[in-house]
Design brief:
alpha/beta, five-stranded parallel β-sheet, three-stranded parallel β-sheet, 10 strands, 15% strand, Thiazole synthase
């Protein structure tokens, strides 16, 4: 476990918990760092506005890796423009690509996202595309220069859990890049299950931000991620028909004697 690191491009991390900051609060940031020991925090460009009254960058320690996203982009060109602005403000080449044109379900546009991956990769970014779990789209994103694939578990902010479990498993089986389960996880148990499946990391925001105790929930998610990763590395026992957990032959012979 000591040598088990998450690699994204040329960056390496020991934590596999990523905090989303869409429901930003100082308590959430502090808890994610102190309780969950997150090493990566996502942020939208509007949260990193140096001219704004409240700048999230003022509350994130320098050792934390920033993962700006292209929130608000409706196509690949807009994603490229937002990414360049984020790089100017944050100095970050690691970028989460979000291209969402649907305001009702907030589902990512896989086609435009794939185009954005290629544009950003060619511009020197390390792109992490947020996408609906689809094998063909994931393969196209890999070929376009993605450093990891970030499929949603369920609609963003829904806390519904691993609704896309079967499709995410296909990506885990077929895609060589890290798979980071993003959006929709509502409990530590769900995060643990995603990690047990073989996910490289999980990203959580709403489930922590809307809990009654942010510090306690942040810690719970951290423990769940660690437990799930350890279980995956150990190898889960196969599901089987009922069988005794202890040998019975000698015991029954002893009773006959």
């Amino acid at each position: 476990m000591k040598n088990d690191v998450l690699q994204l491009g040329n960056l390496h991390f020991t934590s596999r918990f990523i905090l989303g900051s869409g429901k930003y609060s100082l308590e959430l940031i502090e808890s994610a760092i102190t309780q969950a020991k997150a090493e990566i925090i996502t942020l939208a460009l509007r949260r990193a506005n140096p001219q704004g009254l409240e700048n999230i960058l003022d509350f994130i320690p320098k050792h934390i890796t920033l993962l700006p996203n292209t929130s608000g982009a409706r196509n690949a060109q807009e994603a490229l423009r937002i990414a360049r602005l984020a790089r100017e403000i944050c100095g970050a080449s690691l970028i989460k690509i979000e291209v969402i044109g649907d305001s009702k379900y907030l589902l990512p546009n896989n086609y435009e996202t794939t185009k954005a991956v290629e544009l950003l990769a060619n511009d020197g970014f390390t792109p992490l595309p947020y996408m609906s779990a689809d094998l063909y789209a994931a393969r196209d994103m890999c070929n376009a220069g993605a450093a990891a694939i970030m499929p949603l578990a369920a609609p963003i902010g829904s806390n519904k859990g691993l609704c896309a479990k079967e499709f995410i498993q296909i990506l885990l089986d077929e895609i060589a890049l890290p798979i980071i389960v993003d959006a929709g996880l509502g409990s530590p148990a769900q995060a643990c299950e995603a990690m047990q499946m073989g996910a490289a990391a999980v990203m959580v925001n709403t489930a922590i931000a809307e809990s009654s105790s942010i510090p306690t929930m942040a810690r719970a998610f951290a423990l769940a991620v660690e437990a799930g990763r350890a279980a995956y590395l150990a190898g889960l026992a196969p599901i089987s028909a009922p069988k005794p957990s202890s040998p019975t032959a000698d015991y029954l012979g002893f009773l006959r004697d």
